[in-house]
TrEMBL record:
It comes from the Eukaryota. Pfam families: Sugar_tr. Belongs to the major facilitator superfamily. Sugar transporter (TC 2.A.1.1) family. Glucose transporter subfamily. This is Solute carrier family 2, facilitated glucose transporter member 5. Keywords: Cell membrane, Membrane, Sugar transport, Transmembrane, Transmembrane helix, Transport. Residues 14-454 form the Major facilitator superfamily (MFS) profile domain. It comes from Lepisosteus oculatus (Spotted gar). The chain crosses the membrane at residues 7-27, 61-82, 94-114, 120-142, 154-178, 184-206, 270-289, 309-327, 334-359, 365-388, 400-424, 430-448. PANTHER family: SOLUTE CARRIER FAMILY 2 (PTHR23503), SOLUTE CARRIER FAMILY 2, FACILITATED GLUCOSE TRANSPORTER MEMBER 3 (PTHR23503:SF99). GO terms for cellular component: sarcolemma.
């Protein structure tokens, strides 16, 4: 059953307002690497004024890595609070509460320059990370629950488009010729206050998730009112309300983390979620986003900084491609093509790196493969790994599932940020073969076990796992259950 609903201005405003959070996250992901040398000077001067002694190179390197990775570590901490926040305050209100962390963090980070206090940057990145862990789960959760079934996946990919746009914007604004200079980098860090303020002025006037109002709070009248505001009078309100009531009759109002882990019908979707998230994050994408400048320098490109801007541009372009494909090709097909392409790109990157000393022209192939890897990730595995958890579970388990996927996504990003440089030092070109293995494991698992969720109501997807439990799901069976 697919509900055909018109696109109302309020629905589009609600989604646009929600994804302003991921724009901020992308911005602070892309703006920290280019001004590294400028910010490190402030660290050095700050240490000198505080302790009246020079800082050692080892300690300086440690403090900088702490500043960069603090966001990902904070995101893991923030992800733990998704369930409590979403169930206690609702989906929309939780996004607004989390947004306060972003504002506080941006102000703290800019203090590092104006007050010569390097600790403020580290603490600000950690607090901003907590916002990341919350927002990247709460945003798709809210979007999934307010979207028409036929457009649920497409609207969810807007969260990723906003994130990748933020990364590119951060890369551009942090260039030395723009705002990454010694005099402007503190102001550059404050620019995320603009979308943060916009979110308060727009999302506060948008409706709460009707599913949350009906299933979690039992407020049928309020849920129908919110749904009418989102769909307009011409939408199939009665049928959609009936579908939500049906899900409510099968879903407990709340589920604990222990019940989430122990419930038999959740084991298959938990396994699916784990493999997709780990496969996407250990496929090499995050290494390229964090260290692309260094990767390009290694293969001999002096204009590495501008090639990194190319990475950011490809990142945005193919997240837009996934927006148009996710409801036509479906989640399953995009995952299969994406994971296979990631595996092939990593294999060829390993070969081109190994042969670089013999054939220097391999550097150009290597650069193209980096772009190919980014494209493969964003066309399927990347955006889908952030919202698939909301589709595989019923209403009561959805916040726990999104919290779990956020911990997986941010935890693996944090781990990869730490291990990639030493891994390249030890394994060199063969590091990419490790990424290839993760991508291919995810490909074969998707081929064997992952169902298609496109165009299916939440209750239908949840019922499939209740019926099959841990039975292997074949494409043939899934096709028949869809119809």
């Amino acid at each position: 059953l697919v509900f055909q609903s018109p696109l109302t201005g309020l629905l589009l405003t609600s989604i646009f307002s929600a994804v302003l959070g991921s724009l901020q996250i992308g911005y602070h992901t892309g703006n920290i690497n280019a001004p590294e040398r400028v910010i490190i000077k402030v660290f050095n001067s700050s240490w000198q004024s505080h302790y009246n002694t020079s800082i050692s190179e080892t300690r300086l390197a440690f403090l900088w890595s702490l500043s960069v990775s603090g966001k990902d570590f904070g995101a893991v901490l923030g992800a733990v609070g998704v369930k409590w926040l979403a169930d206690s305050f609702g989906r929309r209100n939780s996004i607004l509460i989390a947004n306060a962390l972003s504002i506080a963090a941006s102000l703290l980070m800019s203090i590092a320059q104006f007050c010569m206090w390097f600790e403020a940057l580290i603490l600000g990145r950690l607090i901003f990370g907590m916002f990341c862990g919350l927002a990247m789960s709460l945003n798709p959760l809210y979007i999934q629950e307010i979207s028409p079934t036929a457009l649920r996946g497409a609207f969810s990919t807007l969260n990723q488009i906003s994130f990748t746009t933020g990364i590119l914007l951060g890369m551009v604004m942090s260039l030395n010729v723009v705002m990454g200079s010694e005099s402007l980098w503190g102001l550059m860090l404050q620019l995320s206050l603009v979308p943060a303020a916009m979110q308060y002025f727009t999302l506060a006037f948008c409706p709460e998730s009707p599913r949350y109002l009906l299933i979690n709070l039992g407020e049928e009248v309020e849920a129908e009112t919110a749904l009418r505001r989102l769909r307009g009078n011409s939408g199939d309100i009665r049928a959609e309300m009936m579908e939500m009531k049906q899900e409510s009759s099968f879903s407990p109002k709340c589920i604990t983390v222990r019940e989430f882990v122990q419930k038999q019908s959740y084991r298959e979707p938990i396994m699916i979620l784990t493999v997709i998230c780990l496969g996407a994050n250990f496929s090499g994408f995050n290494a390229m986003i964090n260290y692309s400048t260094d990767v390009f320098l290694r293969v001999g490109f002096e204009e590495a900084e501008y090639l990194t801007l190319g990475v950011g541009s490809v990142n945005v372009l193919f997240s837009i491609v996934s927006f148009f494909l996710v409801e036509t090709a479906g989640r399953r097909k995009l995952l299969l093509v994406g994971f296979l392409a990631l595996g092939v790109c990593n294999l060829l990157m390993s070969i081109s790196s190994a042969l670089l000393n013999i054939f220097p022209q391999m550097a150009h192939l290597h650069a193209l493969l980096v772009f190919g890897l980014i494209a493969a990730y964003e066309s399927g595995p990347g955006p889908i790994s952030w919202f698939i958890g909301a589709e595989l579970f019923n209403q009561s388990a959805r916040p726990v599932a999104m919290s779990f996927s956020s911990i997986l996504n941010w935890g693996s990003k944090c781990l990869l940020a730490f291990i990639f440089p030493p891994l390249m030092g030890i394994a060199g070109p063969y590091t990419y073969l490790v990424f290839m293995v993760f991508a291919l494991i995810a490909f074969f698992f998707t081929l064997a076990r992952v169902p298609e969720t496109r165009g299916r109501v939440f209750n239908d997807i949840a019922a499939e796992f209740q019926q099959t439990d841990s039975l292997l799901l074949t494409p043939k069976k899934l096709k028949s259950s869809h119809h």
